[in-house]
Amino acid sequence: MAAAKLTTLGIAVLELLHERPMHPYEMAQLMRERHVDNRVKVKAGSLYHTVERLLGNGFIEVVDTQRDGRRPERTVYGMTGAGRDAFVERSTHLLGDVAEEYPEFLSGLAVIHELGRERSLRELERRITQLRARVAADRTVTQRLHDDSTPEIYWLDWRFTAARRAFELEWAERLLDELKTEKLPFVCEHEPKLVTEKENDERKTS
């Protein structure tokens, strides 16, 4: 795995190994505690696969094996010099380069007119309800981080996500208001007649 192709999950693993050698189960636990799934899709299978890839490419190495009672033996991994170099190079690009990203919400916004006023307002309200719940949860997590005196430098990724979600909520609420008050009117006078097959069948049977 070339440094330029080091995945974000690979970065997360090497990030933990900067602290100390550890086995994948411990990595998974720490990732849950630190909300790494906020920025990386973490599944047990993908984590173990990533560890194997890092090992195969010489970015990590086996430094110990541990056995706790009757539990299966656990392999402890440490980061190599090559891994540290790859980590620094890839992380530098992740921080400094502006990458093209394609949030699905943008595609939803692009088809609002085709969906029509009634459906669009309903779905925007549904999205706003979900966002409000998530923003409230974000505040709870942020408060806990402050209460635990966790240095903020360690959770800048979380701070960014919470701020972005709060911004999206504010923006969506403003859009909903503009659509409801017709400050932002639909161009066509008539409601677009986009219905799914399921909706069409329900209309026929009602």
TrEMBL record:
Signal peptide bounds: none
UniProt cross-references to InterPro entries, sorted A to Z: Tscrpt_reg_PadR_N, WH-like_DNA-bd_sf, WH_DNA-bd_sf
Protein name: PadR family transcriptional regulator
Gene3D superfamilies: Winged helix-like DNA-binding domain superfamily/Winged helix DNA-binding domain
Native species: Amycolatopsis samaneae
Pfam families on file: PadR
Entries under SUPFAM superfamilies matching the protein: Winged helix' DNA-binding domain
Residue ranges constituting the Transcription regulator PadR N-terminal domain according to the UniProt record: 13-87
